[in-house]
Every structure is written in structure tokens, then in C-alpha cells.
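Help needed: design a sequence for this.
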């Protein structure tokens, strides 16, 4: 279980975006996260992704409190959680090839992994892997970002509006890739989306974060 308990977090002192939020993400299921624009869904995604340190409250992974956020996160806890954002372009180094992008977490942690297998899982050809971000479409780049998020075989995957920029067929393809992780590897997925239809058929249940930052 990836759990947030009593999380208070924000960007400006005295103005919490999340004010005592809790959420439990089990393995082997897709849980949806919905709520009005600006209510703090992406902030909660970044807290759960160990990229944004809450002011108070706790995040734990399989019962163990996280040891730190961002660069202070222990390697094993970093590897437990993958995250994919809405916009792939700002999320990648434009000088890298897609192969380098997918391999980033492997290089950073000194882990061995098969980039070609990851690419295959997300539907990227070897030829596309040799290209740079400006030479591929948003959908192809998002596939690379998903492969990168899966590189360390995380037990939990956070998809923050992962398909919001994509056409229906790429959306369906990426949802299928994620579903395969859930069913074959037992990954727990938090799917954040404004698309109620998508969440209705994708998630086992949908958690709602309301605009007043009340507990989930
Ligand atoms: N880096 C930041 N610096 C300052 N304020 C921020 C930052 N990121 C988000 N916020 C503010 O925090 C609040 C919550 O933003 P967040 O992106 O978490 O909401 P959201 O529910 O994901 O919104 P949306 O559905 O529109 O993506 C908003 O008021 C936003 O302006």
C-alpha cells in the first residue's frame, strides 16, 4: 500500500493546498483521483511521488515511512514509485535520445534493465528510440516517459493526466500498457484525470479531492 496520512502541503507559507489529506493506493488496482481544477491533485501526485515534501503528515510505502523527498529519498523507495505527467516535453532533456530518456532511472541508480524490452512494452520501435524529442510526436514522447517511469519496475505508478494531451487511440494504447502492469506485475496505479468517462471504465474506484482541501 502507498499511503498518505494527514498530509498538509503547499507552496506559500500559511496557504496549504492540501490540508489533512489521506489516500491509500493498494497494489494490483487502478484508483482514480478526480476533483475540480486547482484542488491539489497534482500536488498530491508529487507528494506521493516523493517529489514535493509535505509540511506535515506522512507518506509510507508498504508500511514504511518514507526516508526523504527528492534527492533525499532512499534508492529502494525511489524505485518503488513511478510517475508520468501530463506534458512530456518539459519532463525530458531535449538533448537526449528517447533511448537515453528511458534509460535515465537505470543510469541514475546503477540498475541493469532492458531498454529495448521497456520500449517494446510501450510500443516504441528501435528506430524511434534513436530519435530526439523534437523528432517525435507528443504521443511517442509520452510513451518514452511511461517506459522511463516503468524502468525500475515500480510497485506503484502515478499517472497525472497522462493522456490529457493525446488522441483517443494513443490514450487507449497507453491505458492498455498500464493495465498490463496492473494485471501482470501487480502494480498499483493512481490515475488522475478530468475525464470522468475514462476514470469510470479504468479505475476500480474514484477518490474525490474537493476544492476546500478536506480529507479525501
Ligand atoms: N509550483 C507552484 N507554485 C505555487 N503554487 C502552485 C504551484 N503548483 C501548484 N500551485 C497552486 O496550488 C494549487 C493546486 O494546484 P494543483 O496543480 O495541485 O491542482 P490540480 O487539482 O492538479 O489542478 P488541475 O486539475 O488544474 O491540474 C493551485 O492553486 C495552484 O495554483
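Sure. Designed sequence:
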Amino acid at each position: 500500500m502507498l499511503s498518505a496520512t494527514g498530509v498538509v502541503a503547499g507552496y506559500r507559507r500559511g496557504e496549504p493546498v492540501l490540508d489533512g489529506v489521506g489516500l491509500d493506493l493498494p497494489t494490483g488496482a487502478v484508483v482514480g483521483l478526480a476533483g475540480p481544477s486547482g484542488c491539489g491533485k497534482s500536488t498530491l501526485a508529487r507528494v506521493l511521488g516523493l517529489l514535493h515534501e509535505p509540511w506535515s503528515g506522512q507518506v509510507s510505502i508498504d508500511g514504511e515511512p518514507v526516508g526523504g523527498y527528492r534527492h533525499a529519498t532512499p534508492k529502494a523507495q525511489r524505485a518503488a514509485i513511478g510517475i508520468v505527467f501530463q506534458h512530456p516535453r518539459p519532463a525530458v532533456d531535449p538533448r537526449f535520445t528517447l533511448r537515453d530518456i528511458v534509460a535515465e532511472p537505470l543510469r541514475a541508480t546503477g540498475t541493469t534493465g532492458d531498454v529495448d524490452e521497456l520500449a517494446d512494452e510501450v510500443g516504441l520501435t528501435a528506430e524511434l528510440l534513436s530519435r530526439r524529442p523534437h523528432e517525435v510526436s507528443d504521443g511517442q514522447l509520452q510513451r518514452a516517459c511511461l517506459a522511463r517511469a516503468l524502468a525500475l519496475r515500480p510497485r506503484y505508478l502515478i499517472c497525472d493526466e497522462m493522456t490529457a494531451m493525446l488522441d483517443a487511440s494513443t490514450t487507449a494504447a497507453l491505458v492498455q500498457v498500464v493495465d498490463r502492469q496492473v494485471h501482470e506485475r501487480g502494480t498499483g496505479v493512481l490515475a488522475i484525470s478530468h475525464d470522468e468517462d475514462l476514470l469510470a471504465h479504468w479505475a476500480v474506484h474514484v477518490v474525490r479531492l474537493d476544492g476546500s482541501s478536506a480529507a479525501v
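Residues 11, 17, 35, 37-43 surround adenosine-5'-triphosphate (CB under 6 Å).
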